[in-house]
Amino acid sequence: MLDVLGLEPDDERVYRAVLGRPNCTAALLSELLRVPPAHIDEALRHLVGWGLVIRSVDEQFTAAPPAMALGALISQRRDGLRVAEQALVTFAEEHRAAMTGNSISDLIEVVTGVDAIRHRFLQVQQAARTQVRTFITAPFVAVPPEENSAEPMAIGRGVHFRVVLDRAVLAEPGIITDAVDSLRNGVELRVADELPMKLVLADADLGLVPLAVTPAGVPGAVLLHRSGLLDALDALFETVWRTAHPLELSGSGAEAEPTVELGAEGPTDLDRKILALLLAGLTDPTAATQLGLSPRTLHRRLRRLMDIAGVRTRMQLGGHAVRHGWVKPR
Q: Where are the extended beta strands (E) located within 72-213?
């Protein structure tokens, strides 16, 4: 747990033991943890050096107040990360200047294998300073959306995410719950009828484009640095984004039908989910499955919405929903 602060596993074990045993000795810790005395002595030296443990004149050890001691370490790590981020900007500018005018082989890196693609996918997002733009298509070869650990970290740095989903992705199990979480975190989501490729862009500097699986069954991708080809992918994303359908989902993904309506004359949160998915192009059975409803319940709720809107067809219902703010317009 404390490895992120630089503690080794033995250091953390000893620290936890000292926490509950004020004024303990190295010999007692060695016997208690069944660790050689030399290892205990080394761990205690580390802990005393970090200010986590206090050594008395008679060689007894007591843990310093964790809120103070660990808080200081965490603050130091934050300060170090801020310095590293500033250095990253400088290094990126130096690298960008050095790459200008270089050969094609310097601007394109071929990445092979699931692990390598996953690593580059996370790195591209970590390198972003202002925005990440992504095309998501099925199947998920390297990193399923729910395993994209770089997204929340980048959002925490203030990076803006815009994501276009291929319509077929909305039928994937669990994707609605993941989409709700992303929307709650500030990610903008839109849905396109069909996307030409998977894609992730970091600012206007880096792009990762997964390629087809090789005949040997090994997936590949290309990492692009700033170039005319990257500019073309930038333009492609913006074109698709303008024509894609905004996806807005409230609440928490798949759930049972609520027993309390939000308004007798308007749609509930669940109704808005239904409308958003159907307007995004999902079929009734797929939308019902994603929301944990039976098709009969979905049809009944649609009929209720049509009655409220005073319309007779679903097309008319879609128009009414957009005009009256039930769902976000394209």
A: 108-112, 131-136, 160-166, 188-192, 199-202, 206-210
The whole-angstrom separation of Cα 31 and Cα 132 is 53
Spatial CB neighbours of 90, under 8 Å, sequence gap ≥ 6: none
This prediction's pTM:
0.54
What ranges make up the beta strands (E) of the chain? 53-55, 61-63, 108-112, 131-136, 160-166, 188-192, 199-202, 206-210, 220-225, 245-246
From its phi and psi, is residue 201 left (phi > 0), alpha (psi between -120 and 50) or beta? Answer: beta
pLDDT tens, residue by residue, 253-312: 333 333 333 344 678 888 888 888 877 777 888 888 878 888 888 888 888 888 888 888
CA 176, distance to chain mean position in Å, is: 14
**Would you say the C-alpha torsion 71, 74, 79, 80 has a positive or negative sign?**
positive
